[in-house]
Amino acid sequence: MTELAGKVALVTGSAHGIGTAIADGLAEDGAKVHRVDRDTADLADPRQVTALVEGIGRVDVLVNCAGGVVGQVGRPIEEISDADWKAIIDANLTTTFLCTRAVVPAMKTAGWGRIVNISSGAGRSVSLTGIQAYTSAKAGQIGLTRQMAHELGRFGITVNCIAPGFVRSNPASEAQWQSYGDEGQRRVLERIALRRLGTPDDIANGVRFFVSSRASWITGQVLSIDGGTALF
Q: Mind listing the pLDDT tens digit for each residue in 18-31?
């Protein structure tokens, strides 16, 4: 399928794991893909985001995949510093806001656009690692998705969201998985209806659907790609 031929995609957080799989999948579908990660630009800096998008020109497809736990682990809320909170909110929610704001004018002019935000099961429930800022930022992405879908639909722009389950996709998630030990890993799998962890391609397939013509009348939706974890 090459229905994205002639379209330009911007995928943030594309250095590894889910972001890489998304970028690769959109390229397979014919898009010209710009891959951005923190080594490329600080996406929490409005000036750098503006310069990045101006350098690309028109962006037809935006996937906000940048984020993560920024090296933090779960601690009681009274131990969370202002800087700890801000770092995770910036990495996950502020980047989504800034990148969306930057690409929307050209999408409005074109009368067509696709935005997909990569949230987390933590945004629909709780953070398994107990990181308050992470679950808050991911819930914020879901709220922003719905609000932007409502605001931008009249311009032919769809905005959707994916809430992945547990995927061993980067050093942080791999360390988390190993920390559970054999018994903890068994309990995680028992909470998944399909009894397996997800892969980056599982998440990328959801993005490819949302930006395709098959999803042209779908907007403001949050799709849990989690093997059935959200059933419990």
A: 999 999 999 999 99
